[in-house]
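ok so for the tutorial part 2 we go from a plain amino acid sequence to predicted structure tokens. step 1 is just haveing the sequence, like this:
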Amino acid sequence: MKSKKVLFTMMFIVFSGILTVSTMNAQVAIGILEDPEAGTLLQLKDVAGVTDDGVNAHKGLALPRVALSDKNELYPMFLANPDNPASGPNAAYSANKAGLDKILTGLIVYNLVEDDDKELCLGLNQWTGEEWQCFQSKMENAKFTPVLCSDIEVFGDYIENTSVTSSNYLAVKLNVTKPGAYAITAKTENGYSFFLSGVALSLGEMMVYIPCQGTPIDVQFDNLVFSGIDLAPGCQPQVEVVTAVATYAINCTSVTVNGQYIKGTALTSSNTITLSATSSNAGSYHISVPTTSGVQFVASGSFLGAGTHPITLLGSGTPTVNDDIAVTIHANTPEGNSSCNATIPLTLPRMSYAIIGNGDYSWASTHRLSAFNSASFGPNGTVRIVQLRELWKETTNVANAATRLTNTSEKPDIVLYFAYGADPTTTLSNALAAYIRAGGVVIYGSADNTSTQVNTLMTGIFGTGTNTAIAATSSAGQTSENVYPININPNCPIINGPFGNLGGQHWGEDNAVTGSVIMTSLPPNSVQICSARAATGNPTRNPEHSIVWYNESMNFAYFGDSVASALPTNTTVNGWPAIYTSAGVPQSKNYGINSTGARFVFNSALELNAVAWGLKKAAISGINPH
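step 2 — the prediction. this is what the tokens look like for a chain of 626 residues:
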């Protein structure tokens, strides 16, 4: 008993030497001998720090410091082993967890640890009865993996004694390992620097664009010194400051686009634009193509003096389209020609076709199929395409063709349907209509004297009210080899395509006397390519009647006769009009009713222009994703 009294007396002496306590009405003041302020249960005051206005200025409250380990558990306050955070709750807490969780609602501690996923925050936390809740709203600093030099790109020109603009910035790819606030600085000792602050909201990769400020002073290479991020070992980003801009002009006639461009494939060192520039003095230059459809080109450097200089712009990025990209080349010259236009030729992806029809009057002809090689359709062909392959072929069985179009999971990008031996039925017409509505492309040529079947096809594809196909007849005494002028229309992709601008040339049919099938009126959004009026064979035909036409909105091209194809050795004026070389190159041919009525016809080139049009339609917005 004596020992307990001694211990209590010592504790009281120590306590009273530190604190002065005043109590009144269950209120407590610690630090001075006066009543606490009204409305307080506990008030702490610093005797040495009290000022005239009553403010305590020097000391504060130190709350218990705890290493919380679980957002939803109170037991860190009741550890089985207080020196071991991993020891778990003691028996008393485990036996009365629900009661203690509720009773101790409002408990406040200072948490010494923070987990990576922000479930527990560093600093003041209160117990809500169910979880620990962070007091402060201040976001912690973000963390990133060390940045590779390849993930830092410098944009803009840095020119001596010239203030930077919004085009001067750093593009940096970061990998966030901890979300939070960041402030990134890249300094030089040459009058300019980069700075950006912000918040990384989630884990993973993110791009930041760090603007530049200041004015470069000396012509030199400047090392960038970063703070706010760590650089990978061996990484030392640099910025080149160049001399004042030269007076120069770029020569547009010298522009050449090099390399292959495929949607979704990143550009390599082979993707360049070369040109020449003529300068009147020494100085720097910057020539670029701003990012267009995913690609850009840049060249920077200095001219050592006056003269004409070759320049290579290096490409970067990834094409996002399947169509040729029109770009503008910009130069920073203060005088002279500062811009040129160019076209980046896109190579179409690997695509497929299906054939309906039989023999030399169809696309099953070996002469027509020979065009689908690398010379006409290939990576370096007239039509740039990775590969054009045959998916399936039905020469005479239109029922099978309808089934393939309806049921096959892999759809052809384009259907080549010259209908010799395979006239359209209602079932096939409906299948083709559904295929077209889904984005498919059809190039159709009628067989001889099949106006009824063509009307069935028109009704299936374009609906009722479009059955205006009739069989044409030649003038008395004439044979069947009529030629028709191709309209002059440079905006028509079939008339003016990769195999030539054929406006003003002729197309020929080789039907029987009553065989070709013309349209007396066309569906909406259709464009006439050849009028059905032929000066030599049908001079009285209404010129508004059409024998070759296409419909842009329905991806449908129409030829009024599925003419036969042959080799150029077939030289007679009434031989087959669609001529291809053995290498698949389209040729023109002197063709017609007789030697006086014959004209050079360009059937094969017009056919391939139609295929090229169809493939581009299929690549951009077709039935298959490309």
